[in-house]
């Protein structure tokens, strides 16, 4: 284990030339970041996860109820032992061959079986109330960290003059405020590791979506688009990439980890460009829809983008009053096996 740690923390990879880990030991005059500080993020992440559970139950949930957000989820699929067994034990996305086999076994048409599987998959999605509470927690934490970061960073000299940090690199002292900021952010993302299997990624604007505040949805969407594009396509390359790529090269020169981190930052910028393209594309579609009807960029009436499957459930649904699981009849006989149907198909085997 000691050999692995020594290899991982190789000085010639992480640090500039002529700098060693011994040079970054804490002294009475200054405190520097230590690798051991990363371990602190794990217990803090667990505490944040517990705070989230308390926040969602005693803060977010009452707010959701006050906004008349109900704990209703997607439509429940009708019970069927055979389809349920296939869904839980074999596959949630049956192929065409399996669909045809189930159609013959149950005497259902294929579209009805496809509709059942879509309903059953959507049935496992969280309710609107759960989604609201999740979004409110993330919105509240991000807002708090943003306000704290602005209050702290505006007092630092390297916030206004980016070259300042490179002249002292890597001997930049670690202040208490900066240490708290980094540990809290790192712990938050570690806490998401505990809930990533149940969380569904959404914007904070989704809270207005779930509360059916259409005008607020539109306003938040516009604000989100403006802030995202400005910060990702202007501030990030001009302020951050210019500093890490060119100013750092001029002052300290490249070293192995310098290349790694800058390549990762360039990858992030590429993703920013792609995400900005998607946002602009969505905005253009929203504007074009607004010419013919009401502008609804966040799909308040249908939350297809992240809450339920975007497949065409409505297209496969039968007209009201018609049983979707009854096979089509021709001349009084079933179109599947020729037997006369006197009522809906049995839901049990």
From TrEMBL:
Region of interest (Disordered), residue spans: 298-349
Biased composition (Low complexity): 326-343
Single GO biological process annotation from the record: ceramide biosynthetic process
Membrane topology of the entry: Multi-pass membrane protein
A Pfam match: TRAM_LAG1_CLN8
Keyword hit for GTP-binding: no
Gene Ontology molecular function: DNA binding; sphingosine N-acyltransferase activity
Pathway: Lipid metabolism; sphingolipid metabolism; Sphingolipid metabolism
Gene3D superfamilies the record matches: Homeodomain-like
Record field: catalytic activity: sphinganine + octadecanoyl-CoA = N-(octadecanoyl)-sphinganine + CoA + H(+)
Transmembrane segments: 38-55, 135-153, 179-198, 219-239, 259-280
Keyword field: DNA-binding, Endoplasmic reticulum, Homeobox, Lipid biosynthesis, Lipid metabolism, Membrane, Nucleus, Transferase, Transmembrane, Transmembrane helix
Domain Homeobox, chain residue ranges per copy: 83-127
Principal subcellular localisation of the protein: endoplasmic reticulum
DNA-binding region per Swiss-Prot/TrEMBL record: 85-128
GO cellular-component term (any): nucleus
CDD domains reported for this sequence: homeodomain
Compartments where located: Endoplasmic reticulum membrane; Nucleus
Listed name of the protein: Ceramide synthase 6
Species assigned in the record: Microcebus murinus (Gray mouse lemur)
Top-level taxonomy: Eukaryota, Metazoa, Chordata, Craniata, Vertebrata
Gene name linked to the record: CERS6
């Amino acid at each position: 284990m000691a050999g692995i740690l020594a290899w991982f923390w190789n000085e010639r990879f992480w640090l500039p030339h002529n700098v060693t880990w011994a040079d970054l030991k804490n002294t009475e005059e200054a405190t520097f970041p230590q690798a051991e500080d990363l371990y602190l993020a794990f217990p803090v992440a667990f505490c944040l996860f517990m705070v989230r559970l308390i926040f969602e139950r005693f803060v977010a949930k009452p707010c959701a109820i006050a906004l008349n957000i109900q704990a209703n989820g997607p439509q429940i699929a009708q019970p069927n032992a055979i389809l349920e067994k296939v869904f839980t034990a074999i596959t949630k996305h049956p192929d065409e061959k399996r669909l045809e086999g189930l159609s013959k076994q149950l005497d259902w048409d294929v579209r009805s079986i496809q509709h059942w599987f879509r309903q059953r998959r959507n049935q496992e999605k969280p309710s609107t109330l759960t989604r609201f509470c999740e979004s409110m927690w993330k919105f509240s934490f991000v807002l708090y960290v943003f306000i704290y970061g602005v209050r702290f960073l505006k007092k630092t000299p390297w916030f206004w003059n980016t070259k300042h940090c490179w002249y002292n690199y890597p001997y930049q002292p670690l202040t208490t405020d900066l240490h708290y900021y980094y540990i809290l952010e790192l712990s938050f993302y570690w806490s998401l590791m505990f809930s990533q299997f149940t969380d569904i990624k959404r914007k904070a604007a989704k809270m207005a979506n779930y509360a059916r505040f259409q005008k607020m949805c539109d306003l938040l969407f516009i604000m989100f688009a403006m802030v995202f594009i400005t910060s990702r396509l202007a501030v990030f390359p001009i302020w951050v990439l210019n500093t890490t790529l060119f100013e750092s090269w001029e002052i300290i020169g490249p070293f192995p980890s310098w290349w790694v981190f800058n390549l990762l930052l360039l990858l992030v910028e590429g993703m920013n460009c792609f995400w900005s393209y998607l946002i602009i594309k969505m905005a253009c579609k929203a504007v074009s829809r607004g010419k013919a009807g009401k502008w609804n960029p966040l799909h308040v009436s249908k939350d297809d983008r992240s809450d339920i499957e975007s497949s065409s459930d409505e297209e496969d649904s039968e007209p009201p009053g018609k049983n979707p699981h009854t096979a089509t009849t021709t001349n009084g006989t079933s179109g599947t096996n020729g037997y006369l149907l006197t009522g809906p198909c049995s839901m049990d085997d």
